[in-house]
């Protein structure tokens, strides 16, 4: 098996001959071959093969060959020499999304990210965007969105992809039976599909409930807590977080505090402002919580509060953006430190939080030990990613971990996101990490699609 970067050209010839430049012809050992099978996705065509005098690695496809296997465009792409008489072009990588706004924004707010990813892959693979309705299962094709050099979109029908990267934009978009069936169909066809679905907050704790390595870094958490359980955790830890299981961006989170001589406190955000309420008894606190959230807390999680390191009296936490690389290993692509706004329950930017680099944040809290603490947090982030993957039934390739570091330098994981946002990469100092994140997605797609040479 060998992997070669080659330049694909189209010709107007009507014959069923593939013309291959001399150096590529020799490296593929085609001198004694009269026929060659050429694959794209699951489409295969058999053609006569001839050498042409041309330096470099070039392949010339006639219009008949191109149309039969639906090659979307000319230019650089990998060629996998998987067996003696077969080469495969690609990989063909589909980015699944939705959210159509207009022809210039076919994937809504995710359009810019998908463009960036296609550009990263454009000289190595055939990256394209698509939506669930673009799939034709009976013909095993996808009417994909490809990118012109000027940044405009054009449509091309291609075979089912070699790998699918799932970026459906919301929990609602992927909860229906059609999307469940779609994912299963890709898997049944042997097409790797990664980032299966969004996590609920309670999902991760259930996954890791018996993983000894992971439990060392998880705050005590209870899904669907009873009033008695909330009281028990408050008396044990003095403050807890009360969160909706399916929430995001810090919406609907409460910080509940118990101070024996002063009573109970609830801090939350409402109407763009931070709110603090005091209650004389636990029963009064619960009456308010039930009035706001129903008689049962089945859709909520209560979690032990951790005394995090602070800057100017405001707690810090960290978003670790994790990826699988080209060797199928978990790596940290980027880290954003988030300082909570004054009086805010969370560190989310929309709630007054401030985004910082981890070096800046940790040097202000741990001084000369900042580097050592950061390396420890990176090791924990890799361990937690491995633990989630170990216990999760579907394929993962990307995670966003929300970690906290307490004043003793211990590392805690509060949440894991299966389809993390990319807001940390908006920080000017983290733009190189944003590009590295895209490169890791490309690398992992090459790995999953088996576009790997002997040494990979």
UniProtKB/TrEMBL annotation:
SUPFAM superfamilies assigned: Glutathione synthetase ATP-binding domain-like
Pfam family, one: ATPgrasp_YheCD
Domain ATP-grasp: 372-446
UniProt cross-references to PROSITE patterns, sorted A to Z: ATP_GRASP
Source taxon at top rank: Bacteria
Alphabetic keyword roster: ATP-binding, Nucleotide-binding
GO terms assigned for molecular function: ATP binding; metal ion binding
Keyword ATP-binding carried by entry: yes
Keyword Nucleotide-binding: yes
Protein name per Swiss-Prot or TrEMBL: ATP-grasp domain-containing protein
